[in-house]
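Why should sequence recovery work at all? Because a backbone constrains its sequence more than one might expect. Tight turns favour small or flexible residues, buried strands favour hydrophobic ones, and helices have their own preferences. The token representation captures these environments compactly. In the example below, the structure is given first.
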């Protein structure tokens, strides 16, 4: 948010929204993810917003149609592209593409958008938050363990261990780290972070 932005009651802002200096949003609107409202503008209707994944070859030719409202992650060897797809609000999904953009598989996660999305360095575990839950998939797209109920509403980050053996979740409401096995049993935590918001810990992914 830039200076002198005015938000009226019951305004919802999506991830990555940018509101220019002096802009305003009237009550009850939703400004969708990655939408930009220019300086001095007044939003009188909701904005969908969009962030699209586009894949190109070395010569600049498109390999696949754009995928809107995505999250993307790669294993260390670059053998595939894992995409968290929230383009259909009725059902978030994870899909895997090969290096040429061809789809390898797609797994539906259920209603809601994807909040945090990550892959282990070896590509063995793909994790996504949907609402207050974590879903874990294997390299083949098959679910690993049941849906993990975290009891949290907001997260700052999510990262699998290098070998996919466990997950660390950074909670936003109460700054702490929570540790889970992919099967859903919490191993340790929460580990409190006094005086810090977990978003201020860029080492989280390096740690994992």
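From this structural description, the recovered sequence reads:
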């Amino acid at each position: 948010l830039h200076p002198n932005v005015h938000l009226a009651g019951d305004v919802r802002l999506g991830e990555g929204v940018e509101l220019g200096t002096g802009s305003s949003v009237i009550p009850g609107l939703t400004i969708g993810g990655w939408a930009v409202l220019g300086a001095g503008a007044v939003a009188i209707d909701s904005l969908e917003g969009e962030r699209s994944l586009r894949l190109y070859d070395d010569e600049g030719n498109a390999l696949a149609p754009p995928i809107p409202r995505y999250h993307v992650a790669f294993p260390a060897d670059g053998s595939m592209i894992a995409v968290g797809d929230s383009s259909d609000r009725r059902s978030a999904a994870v899909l895997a593409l090969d290096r040429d953009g061809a789809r390898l598989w797609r797994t539906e996660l259920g209603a809601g958008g994807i909040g945090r999305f990550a892959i282990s360095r070896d590509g063995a575990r793909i994790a996504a938050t949907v609402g207050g839950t974590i879903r874990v998939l294997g390299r083949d797209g098959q679910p690993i363990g049941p849906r993990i109920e975290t009891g949290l509403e907001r997260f700052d980050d999510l990262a699998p261990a290098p070998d996919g053996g466990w997950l660390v979740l950074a909670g936003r409401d109460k700054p702490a780290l929570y540790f889970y096995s992919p099967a859903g049993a919490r191993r340790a935590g929460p580990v409190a972070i006094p005086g810090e918001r977990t978003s201020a810990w860029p080492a989280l992914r390096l740690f994992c």
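A few observations help interpret the result. Residues 198-203 have pLDDT under 50 and may be disordered.
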